[in-house]
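Example record used in the benchmark description.
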Amino acid sequence: TWNVLLSFSGMVALIQLLFLPFFPESPPYLLMQKGDKPGCLKAMKQLWGEGNYHTEFDDLMKEKSVTKSTKIMNVLQVLKEPSVYPQLSIMLLLLLSLQLCGLSATANLQESIIPYVSLGVAICELISVIFCSSIIDRFGRRILLWGGYLLMALILLLLETSLLL
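Model output (structure tokens):
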């Protein structure tokens, strides 16, 4: 019954995919990235109900003015920045520990190809991290979440269908 367990994550993705269009964008995203003050207040009202959100809105405006002077960096600029080396080293350590946890060895693969599978998985993860972090500012989180959940639901549906056939 492992295929039922696998399809459970697809069902969760499908539920999230169905409900995501009904939620508003994040108020900080609307205000800071889009510059949409009325949309920000509307999203606050929709997320938090009726009330006076001028204090939160003022805090967001202060944060926007503070971050206005900060420089937005791309992936290569972040990698060259010495102040983020501790965080990058922790992420690298986590990715390496994931590669060394033995998942490839438990996948019933021939022992001679396990290092290549681990290397391939690591390269795919690295490419996806670089690709996603470079396009997140261009498209926004909502579209990427929606697309990711849609793709995950479709792949799991295809996997489940192929297993049944």
